[in-house]
Amino acid sequence: MLAIEIRKLALSHFAVAFGAFALAAVMGFYQVLERSDLIPALQSPGVYFASVSTHGVLMAYVLTTFFIMGFGYVTAVSSLKMPLWNLKWAWIGFWISTVGTGLAALPLLLGRASVLYTFYPPVQAHALFYIGATLLVVGSWFWCVIMIAMHRQWKEAHPGEPVPLPMFATTANAILWLWTSAGVAAEVLFQLVPWSLGLKDTVDAGLARTLFAWTLHPIVYFWLIPAYIALYSFVPKAAGGKLFSHELGRAAFVMLLVLSLPIGFHHLYMDPEQSAGFKLSHGALTFLVAVPTLLTAFTVTASLEMAGRSKGGTGLFGWIGALPWRNSMVLAGILAAAMLVLGGFGGLVNASYAMNAMVHNTAWVAGHFHLIFGGTTIIMYMATAYYLWPHVTGKPLGSSTLPLVQLWSWFWGFVILTTAWHILGLLGQPRRISTVTYNSPLTFAWDPYILTMVVGGTVLTFSAGLFVYILAKSYRQPETAPIQADEIEYAESLDPVTRVHPLLNGFRVWNIAIAVLMLVNFGYPIAQFFLIKTFGSVAWGY
Amino acid sequence: MHIHPLERRWIYVVLAVIGIFLLAIFYTAIARNIHPPSHIETIDSASLHLSEEFAEDKLGVWTQPDGTIKVTLVAARYGFYPREIQLPAGTQVTFRIASADVLHGIHIPMTNMGTMVVPGYVSEITTTFPKPGEYPMLCNEYCGLGHDHMWSKVTVVAKESWPAAPNAQPVRR
To answer: For chain B, what is the domain count?
Structure first.
């Protein structure tokens, strides 16, 4: 059973995360309706773009950061079996991030920060938005320091022993996040904040986009790694089996850390301010970051297959039917993998240096990241929340069937929504429009998919509501029969892990590798803005 | 490090698949010379109206002496100027685009004509339109509350209906 102070800490983080999620989900529903043009009274670009900006910030920054922090604290104390180092810092970090979220939410909700979650200068938001977003990140740095410190303390107390896999991965994520957030932090602190406060007249949009691209790719791995931790640690256990390979898992997390950083220019393929050579270099490394994901797919599938066969499944596919599909963790793992296969395919198209031109900034891209992020990543957050909820609240989950309904509807909602978006993208519909005004016969082909999108959005909104309902209902149960939830259990490895190579037990060498790769892939591309004559842009409203 | 024989086989498969993808990309980039628009050229977006190339009377479709076409466009809220242009099919067209204000993106759906337009930088993209027809040329990057309305019209006509290239000077159409 988790100590009461850890339960409180984790629950506070989850409350902010899922509160933001609920609000953002409702906005998502409004957005598909507005965008569909079905209800003329809803049409309003001002409200729509304020909503898109808020939806993006809440889902991508607030839900993720708070969930990852809360989950990280639970993982650290339960997998290392040691008390939390520096509870006070953890709370300071929580409050800095929470105040930052509040400060950023004000201008967002008032329509004074409709610059989307990607900032996009020289369109300028109210300074509070940039400052609030910065505080959200600064608060999360406290979490990073705590995770890295606990990893080190455990290693000092257990010389030569392998750090438990979930904590190894969590530390990798903390280090990843420190490296990742440096890019956007530089953009905000040196460019956007001074400019929005009127201390600087102009901003170089090219430099801003380059710094944002530093952050923009690895941030998705920051979001994804907790989902992978659940796939490696919880899913095999819930299926009644063991983890096929512990060491390959460690190797996968190291590769995610090292390779996800120097590849951000695949977001800038179509940009004029970077050269083809660096784009190609980032593009090639982008394909290598598919390797750890393919390894993960193998290890998790192999673990599930062993579990299925031990339950009497036979034949090439018989083990799949023998899996405990009514276990929410197993179900989420299977659905996450299915969405990862589809989304990964789209990702390979996006990453393709030349083919990207066909889909760049079309609805295809929104379809891709909703499938990978909303689908694969968030469905694992949901299953993890169901699993951890009794541990952090001390009360059983109210229902064992409703979570299954919720997870299935989340899956189908995304399949419907993102299939429509992928097709719309191929048919040329841009992302980020609030209505279709192009007077072209091309747009007639879009209509059926726009309707499909509304259906998908409706299913997802139902599912999101159900998720929050299940958690709230369980939390609000009367205290009459408090259960003593068991220990949080992580999957054991098939082969007992007694020793691992030091490279797979720490990060010093990998940090050096990252520094070298970042210098090679970002050094000159950033320096060029100070070497050539550039022209800044003044601020524009919207 | 202990690697199961099945894992080893899977790793080979993964590396082979990724290798094939990378070969295809490097082949198209190096042998076929297909690159995304990556033209580092700066320009002062605040004074396009005074520039050699992007002043109002310099915008539009120009036939080059070698028979190829050059199109100069200004992207500004909310349109690509000039708003309507005609181009020949089956002819190499080079677009040069500058933003007068914020970030824009330009895309002609169902073709591979697309690039971001970043203030302070000139975007350049060369393409050939295979089929005649009317195409919307739309903004695909959020640029303000009128973003939905930012589009211009491109009419691609058959090469035979396009006047022969003049010999001496570029001619504006």
So the answer is: 2
